[in-house]
Amino acid sequence: MNQVLTSKDIQQLKDQVSQYLKKSDFKSARDAATKLLESFPNDPEANYIFALVCLENYEVSDALEYSNLAVKLNDKDPNSRFFRGMIQYRMGMYESALSDFDYVINLSAEYGAKSLEYKTSCLAALGKYQDAMRFYDTTVSIDTTLSQRKPKLREWLKNLTGHKSTFLSKLLAPTGDYLLDAEDALIYKEYWYAEYAAKKVTEESTESEKTGKAKLIQLKVCFAQFKILQAKTLLQELHALLPGNPALIEFAVKMAEIESSNSQNRPSEKIEEINQPGAPAVEETSTPKKADPQGIIDLSPGSKKDSKVTESQSDKASKPVTQGSSPGKRTDFEIIKGVKFKAYFARTFDLFRKSKKWQKILCPSI
Question: What confidence score (pLDDT) does residue 39 get?
């Protein structure tokens, strides 16, 4: 049913998805957005709505894919460009986002002012502080609420350009204030400055307490920008600096939920990641479907009874096992059958690798 949504229909569905997102009911939001996309797969708005929901569910590749598809379906639509730019901005992809916002500014009455605000932040994040100051003033002349919503933003931009108001303001802006500014930047959702200020604290402060708080802010920025791998590394580091911190426990639970959700949505990717070339294969006893065992010749004593290998093959292969093996170890010959090649290799591994504890060491994502 490839038809364009009426403005009433699309607005109702947008409101429904928006309400679910505000309540942090991401499952219901995804269900509603999926229903919309399945009904109208060629509608740009349905695609970028689905992209927004994917982003909130930390499915960043899908978010980028469907936001790009929305623009491809109608490359002249400023709304599609705006939402793709917003998704890229929230992920910290400032240069790509800036290109979309430049396109929207002069073409969309609805999103023009907001695009100017985003452009200001993108320029600042890219280190173009003078240009950011200029566009900040332009934005305030159109949307006067900006200075009320983000009262410190202009002062930050002014300080970064190297032009402080007075000598007194220079004295009153030591590195100790960066921690407070970073917290305010998180509230403003100016993550570029939160990251900048937190980094200044970690580089210049010798107090472990301030350093820990700054790294906690960096962790919040990673989650806000959907940078899960960086967040995971930082989370492990912070457990040593801030043991028992309630915020860390909350982030650890959130990380586990994200990884669990992603593994359920992409089971094939999980298997592919575990069985990379050169990495030891780990058996998953909890997986209902097992790989085809025909390519593996198991020469362990316990499996000889069920083996379908001929006696000549078994005798030839078992000799090095009985003579050179040690207790707790086994040698298997594995045949990997591919489309273009057929390879044989031998491997020796400890049997206790099969335990769940060892699997967690090898594959922490399990």
Answer: 83
Together in a domain, 258 and 310: no
Report the b/e string of 41-61 with b at 16+ CB within 10 A: eebbbbbbbbbbbbbbbbbbe
- Whether residues 257 and 183 share a domain: the answer is yes
What's this model's pTM, rounded to 2 decimal places?
Answer: 0.67
Q: Cα–Cα distance between 192 and 181 in angstroms, integer?
A: 12
3-state secondary structure 169-205: HHHCCCHHHHHHHHHHHHHHCCHHHHHHHHHHHHHHC
Residue type, 294: Q
State both tokens at 208. 């472990």
Phi, psi of 346, deg, nearest 5:
-105, 150
Verify that 316 and 252 share a domain, yes or no. Answer: no
The answer to whether residue 305 scores a pLDDT higher than 90 is no
Token digits of residue 253: 């639970």
Q: Are 332 and 296 in contact (CB under 8 A)?
A: yes
Report the domain count for the chain.
2
Range of the domain at 245: 174-262
Q: Which of 222, 246, 262 is the last residue of a domain?
A: 262
- Give dist(CA 58, CA 229) in Å, integer: 12
Give alpha helix (H) positions in 176-300.
178-188, 191-204, 208-224, 228-241, 246-265, 267-274
Q: Do 222 and 230 form a contact (C-beta atoms < 8 A)?
A: yes
d(CA 67, CA 88): 9
In this predicted structure, what is the pLDDT of residue 4?
58
**Are the C-beta atoms of residues 135 and 116 closer than 8 Å to each other?**
yes
In a domain, 48, yes or no: no
Look at residues 62, 61, 7 and name the one whose alpha carbon lies nearest to residue 34.
Answer: 62
Q: In the numeric block, which tokens belong to residue 273?
A: 């990641």
- Integer Cα distance of 287 and 309 in angstroms: 26
